[in-house]
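Hey, I'm writing a tutorial for new members on how sequence and structure tokens pair up, and I'd like a real worked example in the thread rather than a made-up one. If someone can provide the structure for the chain below, I'll link this post from the tutorial.
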Amino acid sequence: MDATPNIAGLVWRTAATDPARPAVIADGHITDYASLQRRASAIAASLTNAGLLPYDRVGIFLDGGADAVAAFFGVTAAGGIAVVINESLRPRQVEHILHGAGASTLITSEDLLARQPRPLETPSRVLPIHEVPSQAGFAPLPRVGMDPAQIVYTSGSTGLPRGVTVTHANLLAAAATVIDYLGIVASDRIASVLPFSFVYGMSQVLCAAGSGAALVVERSPLAAQLVANLRAQEITVLAAVPPLWQQLLNVPAFRDERLSSLRIATNAGGHLPVPVVRAVRQAQPQARLFLMYGLTEVLRSTFLAPEEVDRRPDSIGRAIPGAEVLVLREDLTPCAVGEVGELVHRGPTVALGYWNDPEATARVFRAYPLRAAGAPDAERVVFSGDLVRRDADGWLYFVGRRDRMIKTLGYRVSPDEIATVLYASGEIAECIITAEPDDTRGERIVAFVVLAGGGSLERLKMYGALELPRHMQPARYELREALPRLPSGKHDVAALRGEPRPA
């Protein structure tokens, strides 16, 4: 197998060619690429000197910032497998991830540990980040394409979190592809508003390092303050998930005033309702809006280019360059135009599988079903569990999760389709559609909603009754002041259903 550069080489390369270029901007402090590389080298050297072996797992539990970025590249430079843990998690969840990954070491900070309600209980050796020397020489270890670089724990939006094993080649392919189709350049200032533990959040890290751009870490919990900071920092690239876009649109300084520096906006992590797409376009027309679809198991799968957004705002686009997306029936034959089937992804970003879970891996990571007769079945593709359809021109449209389809009154109903109609009413800022058992219907539809400013629940109910067929109408509306979110920023459907989280 041909040697593949270590993912950490992205930082080492820019540090060698443009050392003074800003790499990470956080809390008013600027870390240039030379300083980031020295810090990552020192972390790699500290781990190696402490006995870290290639493929050992290393937990990274740090507040988002330069040290967290350096720790990721330091671990991967040393040949370890990085396990980035969301800084908002509590000891029980952190311990679950460390145990599941079999982490030999945990890189963390005294400040973050001091904020925990109790001490962490883990056999992992703890390496306090402040004990790492300020700098040390280290060259990234050479890797090959199938070498794991990271275990990414899924957000849990479709079930309990599982660790997905991602290779150096996966990360490099995804970064290069996204940089290319977004058109990111070294002069860009990329906002980091999502956790590094989230595939979409790490994508901003890798796109910045891969292009030599600056990563501007912004974690303000208040949407109004976030908008003010984006303006002050002259952000050029902004990536957000649907709930965050909806929050931003509630801020007049975003909805009614252009962020003049913003030239690229991206959505992933969930379907963005058409009314929200149009509202973002109206609020920031100077920004090229990319509607993207991905899943942890393949990092990035499809995108809709800005030139198509106004024509088909409900589409997830086409496969990313170098990949293929299939729409298959249950018998693994291709769907006809307009027929709903499962999205199956093949290409260089397909991960290795689920960490220490061969049964789940066998269900999702399967042999390429359309290979020629007699061809070896070594190539693996990902069966996403997402239902989509393809139109006559090849554009893909998300229908819903196979495991979230609601069966009511003899119909299979997509929660996302109902949500899209309710958003079009203009009465709500956010909603989650779920279901509960019903002896007569099979399942009854429940809409959890947050009203928009001036919104009316009664008008929403009347709109739903007019615009939705009977089998798609919510049996009950529940008014909430806020909807639960996962650490990734996505809506937490399981929390509304009362489903368990890992203990």
